[in-house]
Amino acid sequence: MEEISKHDKQGNTIYYRYANGYTSWCKYDKHNRITHHRDSDGYEEWYKYDKNDKNDKNDKNDRLTHYRDSDGFEEWVEYDEHGGLLHVRDCTGHEEWYDENKKKHTRLV
Predict the structure, then answer these.
(1) What are phi and psi of 9, to 5 degrees?
(2) Rounded Cα–Cα distance for residues 86 and 61 (Å)
(3) What digits encode the pLDDT tens for the residues 50-88?
């Protein structure tokens, strides 16, 4: 079987079939950020973003704020007022906090 890929007008891969028959599909938002992925095995992923700079009318600086997959895993990400990474937590109880020097402090709840 031959590999096949399809792309949208922005060049994002929206469909891919591998030689072994495995297939994946992706959706993107208007800023070319992936928002949904699914594959022929039934696995899916969803991505949500928020603006990094609320005064910036250009959304290219948006950051990932929530990730979820079909296995039940979820992750939430928070940023400080300057767009720097502040806090990451997931559904397993794992948390990471970052100080002003971007030093990571990990805590399991």
Answers:
(1) -65, -25
(2) 16
(3) 875 555 555 456 799 999 999 999 999 998 887 888 999
Q: In whole angstroms, give the CA distance from residue 82 to residue 88.
A: 16
Q: How many residues does the chain have?
A: 109
For residue 64, give the nearest of 53, 54, 75, 80 by alpha carbon.
75
CB 53 within 8 A of CB 61: yes
Q: Assign 83 to helix, strand or coil.
A: coil
- The structure's pTM equals 0.80
3-state helix, strand, coil in the chain (%, to 5): 5, 50, 45
Instruction: Give me the residue spans of the domains in the chain.
Output: 1-41, 43-109
Q: In this structure, which amino acid lies at residue 2?
A: E
